[in-house]
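User: Sequence for tRNA dimethylallyltransferase below. Tokens please.
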Amino acid sequence: MKKLISIAGTTGIGKTRLAIAVAKHYQTEIISCDSRQFFKEMKIGTAAPSAEELAEVPHHFIGHLSVTDSYSIGQYEVDALQKLEELFAIHEVVVMVGGSMMYEKAVTEGLNDLPEASAIHQEKLNEIWKNSGIEGLQQLLKQLDEIYFQQVDLDNPRRLLRAIDVIWQTGRPYSELISVPRKQRDFQVIRIGITAPREIIYDRINRRVEVMMESGLVEEARSLLPYQDLVPLKTVGYTELFWYFSGEWDLETAVSEIKKNSRRFAKRQLTWYRKEDDIHWVNFEHSHEEALSLLEKIVG
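Assistant: Structure tokens for tRNA dimethylallyltransferase:
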């Protein structure tokens, strides 16, 4: 059976470098399941792999879309499985990496059979979003499904809109609907997670934001001002700078908020991963050595 090695872990923990090391070891290619890195205009704020890193190993689903493109997790599942079929025709092993947990799940387990989006519900929810902000959507989801509220990326409006829409259509909790077992994949999934003490994770996130600022994040975000109302830009690293551009915050406040919201996202990632029982954890300080040693026993 072909093998998909999925590299998991919180934001800023070193997944990209480990994925490249593993892909080089098996002389294979990488598919990304980081939904923020799909957009070519958002390289700095999403910490997309550098040109040098992309040249080390063939990557797929990095910068293949524009922020003006419409793209769903369902379409990603279709595209990723098609790409895997192509890659497995020439490789025994393929590497996947990214911190978007639901996108990883879409590939490794498949999405549930859920109804298509309701135009009426979307219009109503967008009105709530416009009038009450993302907090209004968050509170509505919390009332409807406390379990999914604890799992979801609360700063991702697409997740909130989708979950609430499905709950309204089906009358059932979204967390219940997505827990239904799905069809088995025809490849073996091996999940490797990078772990570190929480204070180390938070420190790495803070330093990563500072590097983004030095690399030109303000200029990148400014270039995206005309698109600030599009869903891809409703994300950490950009929304805070849009507040700065509007004069509501100074730059120091915006940077502080980027760090805080990035740490909040990492906390939600940790909560998600704690519930997963099939991840082989390796220490961030020796992740390459530990991962390759572990994979040698499983894959050969």
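DSSP finds 13 helices and six strands in the chain.
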